[in-house]
Specification:
Blueprint: H1 3-23, H2 29-53, H3 59-84, H4 87-112, H5 123-141, H6 149-183
Helix pairs in contact: 1-2, 1-3, 2-3, 2-5, 3-4, 3-5, 4-6, 5-6
Length: 186
């Protein structure tokens, strides 16, 4: 077990902590839940950085890192869908979750074809992930009764994240399209 893999496992352990804090009946839990999510987001960046910097990339890390990231994002968005209980929130959240499932399946399928690099993480994917993390952090931080500049900024961030999510999905599907089309006759 190396440092990057330990950070990834720590991020997975933070998921039930996030859920427990989300439902804790105290007013200050908005802040604590947002902090737990922020710590998870930072470890997402840090484990990848350390794996490259220290030469500690492993097959376990390559598998667990995207799983931990997608689980944290999906769980946080599912919690927030319940909190905000409105189409204006649910639609972009479902777009984000759905894209993650589609691209994960696409990457797995392309790996089976030996063409995983054609759907490797891109710069846009990193920007999309950052937008998602910042948006989710913002929504965890505010209560549904809030309004004002932070609330409005969160709306813009959520929709920006959803648009980047769709855009990156189109790019990945476009890159894989020749292989998708080629094998669709089987």
């Amino acid at each position: 077990m190396n440092i990057p893999n330990s950070l990834t496992l720590f991020r997975i352990v933070l998921i039930p902590v996030l859920v427990a804090l989300f439902y804790w009946p105290e007013a200050h839990t908005y802040f604590l839940t947002a902090v737990v999510f922020a710590v998870a987001a930072v470890t997402d960046w840090l484990d990848g950085y350390l794996a490259r910097k220290l030469g500690q990339s492993t097959p376990l890390g390559a598998f667990l890192d995207p799983v931990a990231d997608k689980l944290m994002v999906a769980v946080a968005l599912a919690l927030l869908i319940e909190r905000y209980d409105a189409a204006w929130f649910t639609i972009p959240a479902v777009i984000i979750i759905g894209r993650e499932i589609v691209i994960s399946a696409l990457r797995e399928w392309m790996a089976e074809l030996g063409k995983r690099t054609s759907v490797a993480v891109s710069y846009l994917g990193k920007v999309k992930t950052t937008a998602q993390m910042v948006a989710i952090f913002g929504w965890l931080l505010v209560s549904p009764e809030s309004n004002g500049m932070l609330y409005n900024a969160n709306i813009v961030l959520l929709y920006t994240a959803a648009l980047l999510t769709l855009w990156s999905m189109v790019i990945y599907l476009h890159a894989a399209w020749p292989d998708l089309r080629e094998t669709s006759g089987d």
